[in-house]
Structure formats: C-alpha cells, structure tokens
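Reviewer 2 asked us to include a model.

Predict the structure of this chain.
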Amino acid sequence: MSTSPKIRVQGLWKHFGTTVALQDVNLDIEENAFVTLVGASGCGKSTLLRTLAGLEHRSAGTLLCDGQPIEGPGADRAMVFQHYSLYPWLTVLENIRFSRQLKVHTQDRTAADVEAAAGRADALLRLMGLTHVARHYPSQLSGGMQQRVAIARALMSRPQVLLMDEPFGALDAQTREVMHDLILHVHRLERSTIVFVTHDVEEALYLGRQVVLMAPRPGRIDTVYQVPLPAERQQDMKLAPAFNELKREVLARIRATSGMQTDFELLAKLSQAGSLDLTE
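Predicted model (structure tokens):
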C-alpha cells in the first residue's frame, strides 16, 4: 500500500515581477527524510525553502504538507536561518522557550502542557550543550552556540518539518563539522523531516540522504542524487573514494548548469592573451 509523501511539490512556479525564480518544480519528500538542496547562486534554493515555510506565496502549482495545502506559516514547520535571528534582550533559555508564547501554542494550554514545555526546554538545553549558558544573552555566545540556540528554539514546538537555510554558512570549518554531527543526531532523535539548503557540496552529501541539484535562470530541479552512505554518518566517510567521486560529479554538474565552465575558459584565454595586466 503506497503512502503519500510528507511534502509534495507539483508544477511550482514563483515569479518576482517579470523574473521567473522557480519554473515547474516537482519534488516529493518522504517522512523522516533528510534532503539537501544545492546549486549555484540564483537557482532558487532559498526561494523554494521559503515557499515551503509559507513565507513566500507560490505563483502557480501545488504545495502540500501531509496532503494539506501550504498557504502560510504553520506550527508543523519550523525554519532555521543562516543568521541566527535571536532576540538579544532574551537569555538563551528565554529564546528557546519563546515559541511557546505564540498564540498558536497557547490556545487551550493546560498546566500539564506548561510543565511538559519546561521539561522539553531543559532537554533541548542538554542536547545542544547549552546548559552552562542558559542565563547568558546572545551577545555573550560564539556563532556556533548562537546557532545551537536557534535550532533548539525551532525544535521547541516539535515541528514535523525542519527547514534550514544555510544554517552553518557563517561558521568556521571545525565548528561546522561539530554542527553536522549534532544535526544528524537531532534528526535521529526527533525523526523530523529536514530540508537543508547549502552551497557546500561536501556538506550536502554528508548530511543528506538525497541531494537535489537545482539549476539557475530560471530556478529549476536539474538532478536528484541518492547518497550511497549509511544512515549513521562519520566524518571519515568524506575520505572514501565513492564519496569523492560523487562530490566531483555534483560539482561538475553545478558548473555545467551555471555556465561557470565557460567563464573559466574565458579567463584562461584572457590570461594567455596577456589581457590581464595585474601589475597596474
């Protein structure tokens, strides 16, 4: 017996004035999937993610979550942005608990619900390694710790879908690796569906079970790759020949769809012709 996907995108178009940002996007995302979106700048990755979040309205097409149309933001979906977007006047714990103060979570709330929410906030503090800074303010934290707070806040309401827009883009390489393993651990525990936008192909392959490559001008899905790695990921898997071969294949396809190969060839010709005088 077949079941419907968690998220279904059919014939999705998005226009900004006369610019076509997304053209006829079709994508099914299964429950508990970890899907990463990659592609050159301007391919519509973030626009697609924001449309899934209900922060952008589609121009045409169908967008469903659990069979229901996505018409705007909803408690079933949470989003984590590249910039941490924490409230600077709230402590770490208060930032994490903030979503529980929204109207959608306070309707018909009982004392038991309040107690359960407090327990979940404490559990998320421990999971993210933030217990010792629970009373600190965002300005007192490193970038990696601020992003942990943002992720914990997104998870506070137990969303079924977690949408992440280059959440680790501003972090250094070592912190990114720690955050990769943390989000994979969170995915195993929470069993949510994650859609993750990144420019980093290695990050996309390490995190995703499925990598969706998008092409620009206009934004569209070009290729979908299944990642041949076990669900339990380890950093040394990035050194495996199969991993690096797939990485080369995805990078080559990004260059081909974005026209960057032509740019490289042009630069080489200009250099050979002496057209670039870097001494001036």
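The beta strands are 7-16, 19-29, 34-38, 60-65, 68-69, 77-80, 161-165, 193-197, 210-215, 220-226. The first strand starts at residue 7 and ends at 16. We have added this to the supplementary material.
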